[in-house]
Each structure stands twice: as C-alpha cells, then as structure tokens.
Specification:
By secondary structure, the chain is mainly α. The chain has a domain of about 250 residues. Helix 1 runs antiparallel to helix 6, helix 6 crosses helix 8 and helix 8 runs antiparallel to helix 9. The longest helix has about 40 residues.
Length: about 375
Amino acid sequence: MMRKTYSRVGFSVVALYGVMSVVTAVILLVIMFGVLFTNFSELLLMIRNMGPQDAFNLFFNEKYTDLVLLGSTLGSAVGMGAGLLVMRAILKKPEAQIEQRDLTATELLLLILSAFGLWGLGALIGNIPEFFGVLSLDLTAKDPYITLFFCIYAVLGAPVLEELAFRKLILDRVHPYGELIGALTSALLFGLFHGNAAQFPLAFGFGIVSSLVYLKTGKISYSILLHMLINLMGTSPELFGLLHIDITIPWYVIAGALMTAGLIVWFLKRKEELFVFHRSAVPDANRQAFKNPGMLVAVIGGLATVGVTEISLLFSAFMSYLPEQISSRPLVRLIPITAVVIIVVMVLTRSRKRTDPERTELPEPDPFSGSPDV
C-alpha cells in the first residue's frame, strides 16, 4: 500500500508540472503574438531599416524579460490552480487525518526562525555563483507593473497554491507511513519542482520546516503563513527597488542574522518534540517510497529539468565572456548542482539503515530528527 501511495504522489506531481508547463507555454505564446500584433507597424519599420534577423533580435531583447516573467507568473497561477485539481483526481482520499492543534506564540516564533535558518542556508548555497558575478536567473522586469505583479503573486498566491500541493495533498496521504520519509519526499519534490539548482537548496530547506509545521499542527494555514514570510523576505529587494530604494546591504545583514538565529534554534531545539519527525515503522520504507514508477518518473524528470537549466546557464555564462577573458569562474555554477545531487542521494538513501528488519543496533543520529520513534 505504501508503494502504491507514493507512486500516486509521484505521478500527481508530474501531472502538476505538466499542466503548469503547458498552460505557461500557451500563455507565453498568446502574449508573444499579442505583442507582435499590437506592435506590428513598429516591427515592420524596423525590418525595413535593418533586416528581419536584427529587427527581431532588437525587438524581443527589449521585451524578452518582461514577456517571460509575465507569462511565467500567469502560467504558474493558472497552471497550478488547474494542476491541483488534477492532483486531487490522481490521489486517493487520505486514510487518516493529521491531528490538529494550535501553536503557541513561542512555538510559532521558533518555527519561523527555523524556516529562515534552513531557507537562508539553502539560499547561500544556491546563490554562490551570483557572489562570483556569474550569470544567474533574473526575476526583475523592466516594466515596474510586471515586477509588482510578480511580487504580489510570489507573496500571496504562490504560498497558497504550493502549500496545498506539496504539503496538504501529499502529506495527508503519506503521513501514516512515517513523518520523516513524508517530509523528505515533500521537500525533495518541492525543490525539484522549482526546476533550477539555485532555488533547489532553499526550497528543500524550507520544505523540511514547512512539512514539520503541517505534520505537527494539521493546519495548512501555518505553513502558508511561513511561506508568505519567506517569499516576502525574498522579494523585498524588488519591492523596494520599485521605489528606487536600494536595500542590498541591509537585506544581506538581516537575512544573515535570521539564518544564523534560525540554525541555532534548529540545533538547540532539535531533540524537543516540536522538532522531532517520527520515523516509519514500515520495513524498508525508503525503498517503498522511492523505488516505484511514480516517484522514479518524478525524481528523474525533476533532475533532468534542473540539469538542462544548469547546462544552459553554464553555457551562457561562458559565452558572456570574451575569448581572452574566459576563466574558470563560470564553473562555480557546478556548486549548486553538486548540492542538488548530494541532497537527492542523501534523501534516497536516508531511511534504509533504520528500516532494515535484520539490523538490531541503535540507529545513527539523524540531521532532521532529534530521536527515533518510541
């Protein structure tokens, strides 16, 4: 039963990604043809003056970032909404509900700091290439209204849709087979869903804490709140940039302080019940969770998507330098993708030693859990 449940989870995430990709592609095409139609006379004049290739390059270079960001944001909103319906159709009804309880103000504060801690550590790893001045993903449009629309969706829309998909729909189904393996699965799929190595570590780190919050409370509203706070922090430079205010240095100081405080909280509180993931009592749970058709397709497909993105960015990074200036600097893009591979391997092999019925010795300490099940 566990294998079938996890296989359905894997296929549901593949379907979600597929629906969102198709919807995004359609929206991008509609926007592109709309821009061409409304600016046809301008483009025609440019073609006459400089030729078709130069005209199209100049025309779309001016609008490319705006078109992609607008289309991607709309595609994410509409596609994820439709994808959630597909996920619900693929997944069976949950066998057991997670027991609901409220968090105290102190517990909520500790979990918020922990979320910023693991998110910050992941962001630090994922953005190493940017620190070296290597080409990275640009999420800022030239049109301020498009940037504002993206930020509003990132802070208000995406947290709701993503938490419903990767926490509620998934964890409601898999939590009876073990909280730890369920949280790792949710975080892994959530990280791969972002489709690039820069965002994978931060999405994975946050996914661990968000899964913990939902498993401990049974209320998706807490996870959505955490997600909104994280995304507000992540988009605040763009929001202040719309007001022509540069907060780069204070942002790094505040983000660094929150990351440090969060990691300290996670380390000090890791053995308390609030921070403990209960492990699976199912024999060979790791094999059943990941070695099934649905999860294999989801993980391999996610890794392929991340790999293609990183190869294209690495190639673009090398091409951005003049031949006499090319150095090994773009190779730092390999650091985030290496982190992705390490995390995936760790997740896929994490539970084997603890679920092998032939082993009798005590389990080794777990970085995500304070103590084994009792």
